[in-house]
Amino acid sequence: MPSASRLSPWRHLPNAISMLRVVLVAPICWLLLLRNWPSALSLVAVAGVSDGVDGFLARHYGWQSQLGGLLDAVADKLLLVCCFVILAWLGEAPVWLALIVCGRDLVIASGALLWLLLIGRIDPHPSLVSKACTLMQIVYLLTVLLALMHWPAPASGLFAWLVALLCIASGLDYVVRWSRRAWRERRRA
């Protein structure tokens, strides 16, 4: 019998918040291309906060779902990859960092596709290092945008290296953890 929280009319709120983040990607990209830093900063901040809010609501109230996990991952990947690529293209972020961010997400997406083709249904479980990576990427974007507005912001150079290290660590973590899971699943079959 489903719990009362599972039957709540609010149970779809985390998915709606994730969809809002997906919808925000286009206006954020447009604002970045226009170099409208204050508006881009506002929307990136909204997207960053909403990422935490939807996860908290889903876990706290037991509103987690397969769709929610997928929407959350897609929203994060779209937002972060697009922002890093555009900022690098505009010369406002290092190209090497955008390549690391995109490379990590390419590894993760390729692994997910392989899992789906070879094993079946994916049940995403982001690790702590992956969550730290996403958070640091959002913090980095916010500090870059603050600096572009000539506000005092923490050294984005240091944050760039932290993002790079966390992306590499997170990518390796995904490869190792999911390879082990795949090996166990294949042996069971």
Question: How would you explain this protein's 3D organization?
Answer:
- 80% of the residues lie in helices and 0% in strands.
- The chain has 189 residues and is mainly alpha-helical.
- The protein has a single domain, classed as Four Helix Bundle (Hemerythrin (Met), subunit A) (Up-down Bundle), CATH 1.20.120.
- It is globular and about 55 Å long.
- The model has no long low-confidence stretch (mean pLDDT 88).
- It is a multi-pass membrane protein.
- It comes from Dyella flava.
- Pfam families: CDP-OH_P_transf.
* CATH class type: Mainly Alpha
Low-confidence regions: none
Shape: globular
Report the CATH architecture: Up-down Bundle
The whole-number mean of residue pLDDT values reads: 88
H and E order: HHHHHHH
How many helical elements? 7
Oligomerization status of the protein chains: single chain
Structural Rg: 18 Å
* Class from helix and strand fractions: mainly alpha
CATH topology, which one?
Answer: Four Helix Bundle (Hemerythrin (Met), subunit A)
What percentage of residues falls in helices of 4 or more residues? Answer: over 70%
Strand content: under 5%
The end-to-end distance, rounded to whole angstroms, is 31 Å
Main β sheet profile:
none
